[in-house]
Amino acid sequence: MEVPMVLPHVEVVHGTVVSDTPELCIALREGGSLTVTATAEQVRTASRLREGDQAITAMVVMGPTPRLIWIRQEGADVPVPSAEARDAHALKKWSELLRRLAQ
């Protein structure tokens, strides 16, 4: 019997941080837990949230090795850059590729 291949996908999860070394372990609100890899900065943020026993919201790339994209206190306001700032960032990041494609 063949095991179906599951493509990586992004999920937002809710829960609490129960362990922050060497990988983050999140107790999910729905039950069970999820272990994810994270950057050093993300681990520091998770550790701070764990010390305060705060509920969290996190975005995770689900795949063979789940990877944390971001983590924050549940309900925290998310800063959204202005349209001008987003455009400037995109142009800065992609200007060379756009220039080459235009040729």
Structure description:
- The chain is of the alpha+beta class.
- The chain has a domain at 9-73: OB fold (Dihydrolipoamide Acetyltransferase, E2P).
- Helices cover 31% and strands 33% of the residues.
- The protein is built from two helices and five strands.
- The protein has helices at residues 40-51, 83-102; strands spanning 9-19, 24-28, 33-36, 56-62, 67-73.
- A five-stranded antiparallel sheet has the order 3-2-1-4-5.
- The radius of gyration is 18 Å and the shape is extended.
- It starts with 8 loop residues before the first strand and ends with a helix.
List keywords for this structure.
103 residues; alpha+beta; OB fold (Dihydrolipoamide Acetyltransferase, E2P); 5-stranded antiparallel β-sheet; 5 strands; 33% strand; extended
Write the layout of secondary structure elements.
Layout: E1 9-19, E2 24-28, E3 33-36, H1 40-51, E4 56-62, E5 67-73, H2 83-102
Antiparallel strand pairs: 1-2, 1-4, 2-3, 4-5
Short characterization:
The chain is built from 2 helices and 5 strands, in the order βββαββα. By secondary structure, the chain is α+β, with helices and mostly antiparallel strands. The chain has a 5-stranded antiparallel beta sheet with strand order 3-2-1-4-5.
